[in-house]
């Protein structure tokens, strides 16, 4: 198990890669048996399917990077407890295909395994994401 400061650095560096659109760097932070879940997601949009495994998560992240751009990102809190962490943040999110944007608050729950992100469960306003994503 990593110490709190290593886990915080891992999460912050992974999010920096995501926010700059660097898929290869982002995927370097994920464990081979990783999962990503946006709570309520698949009913909102196909973009938010819930993949398991590194290749499936990579495909999902590639789609998210292609569709959504973050700006004015602000970390509100990051707590680590053993192999679990919670990141509370907010950002302006622009959807490239629709040209719409909105301000979102997000909470991500992580499980860390062998110094990598094994799972992410993300909570945000999925109805708001559907609104900015609508054609």
From TrEMBL:
Domain of life from the UniProt record: Bacteria
Residue ranges of domain SnoaL-like in the record: 11-119
Pfam family, one: SnoaL_2
InterPro entries: NTF2-like_dom_sf (IPR032710), SnoaL-like (IPR037401)
The protein's name in its UniProt record: Nuclear transport factor 2 family protein
Organism: Bosea massiliensis
């Amino acid at each position: 198990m990593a110490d709190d400061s290593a886990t915080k650095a891992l999460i912050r560096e992974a999010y920096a890669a995501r926010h700059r659109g660097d898929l290869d760097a982002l995927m370097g932070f994920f464990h081979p048996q990783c999962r990503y879940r946006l709570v309520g997601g698949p009913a909102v949009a196909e973009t938010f399917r819930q993949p398991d495994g590194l290749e499936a998560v990579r495909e999902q992240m590639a789609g998210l990077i292609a569709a959504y751009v973050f700006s004015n990102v602000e970390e509100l809190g990051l707590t680590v407890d053993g192999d679990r962490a919670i990141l509370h943040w907010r950002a302006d999110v622009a959807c490239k295909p629709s040209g719409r944007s909105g301000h979102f608050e997000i909470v991500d729950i992580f499980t860390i395994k062998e110094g990598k992100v094994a799972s992410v469960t993300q909570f945000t306003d999925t109805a708001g994401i559907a609104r900015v994503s609508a054609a």
